[in-house]
Amino acid sequence: MSDNFVPITLPSQCLTYPEVKPEDIKARAYQGSEEELLSQINPLNLERNYLEVMKKVIQGIDPLKLTLGDRLYFIVWECINSYMDVIKVKTVCGNCLQEVEVSVDLKNLGVIKLPDSYKEPYEVTLPSGKQIKLRLLTVADEIEIEKYQQKQGKSHLYRYARSIVSDDNIVEKLKLLENSPTIKDVAKVRAFHEKFYHGPDFNYIYKCSHCGEEDDVEVPFRLDFIFPTGETLTKTFGEKF
Q1: Cα–Cα distance between 241 and 234 in angstroms, integer?
Q2: φ, ψ for residue 218 (rounded to 5)?
Q3: What is the DSSP string of the chain?
Q4: Each residue of 165-174: b (16+ CB within 10 Å) or e?
Q5: What is the widest separation between alpha-carbon atoms in the chain?
Q6: Of 19, 17, 14, 3, nearest to 56 (Cα)?
Q7: From first to last of its 241 residues, what are the pLDDT tens digits of the chain?
Q8: Is 162 in contact with 173 (CB distance < 8 Å)?
């Protein structure tokens, strides 16, 4: 069986991977051999288990180095190419205030890219006056955050500490945020990650089936993107039985 790898264009534009050629990055749809791994994924083991899947279906880059935005884009790409390109989302129309079920065509989601000028490490001046350097989080970071959460029961500040670029160890980076004289410093770090979000644009425009007016709905991320089960599975694959 051919592996059927095809080129994919990542939202980061590979600006965070200077050693990687964008044209070398390829992916293939899931095959039957991935079913066992995908079936074992749950919210508690998502990061480590999905990494094993990505190692099989991505070429041209170490999946551990992927930014979280690129990984999210890849998850949606796999959903479209392996399972389904249309999902159902329930919302309330902002015009007529009636509940409506929206058929979201994942192929028509926009893609938010990193700006061409983006460069890491990114220098930021905190409200307290301290200057720091930041980077975007990666799959490798998310795996360590998952481990920290399971061990410590909390990971909010640890998450953002991992994005600080310095010669200090992670303990010192964490203390920098914990001992900040103003919470605005932490907010500034969080804002960096919001500002440079890249990946699928989950804000979807639809036409209400009741009033005919256009509105928008925020498409929620769900594990069905990775491994459809239940109603999603039967609606996609079971209607012709």
Answers
A1: 10
A2: -85, 115
A3: -----EE---TTTTTT-TTS-GGG-EE----GGGHHHHHT--TTTHHHHHHHHHHHHEESS-GGG-BHHHHHHHHHHHIIIII-SEEEEEEE-TTT--EEEEEEEGGG-EEEPPPTT--SSEEEE-TTS-EEEE---BHHHHHHHHHHHHHHS--HHHHHHTTB-SSS-HHHHHHHHHT-SSHHHHHHHHHHHHHT--EEE-EEEEE-TTT--EEEEEPPP-GGGTS--HHHHHHHHSTT-
A4: eeeeeeeebb
A5: 65
A6: 3
A7: 447 999 999 999 999 999 999 999 999 999 999 999 999 998 889 899 999 999 999 999 999 999 999 999 999 999 999 999 999 999 999 999 999 999 999 999 999 999 999 999 999 999 999 999 999 999 999 999 999 999 999 999 999 999 999 999 999 999 999 999 999 999 999 999 999 999 999 999 999 999 999 999 999 998 999 999 998 888 888 776 6
A8: yes
Q: Which two tokens stand for residue 29?
A: 């749809």
Token code pair at residue 199: 């990946």
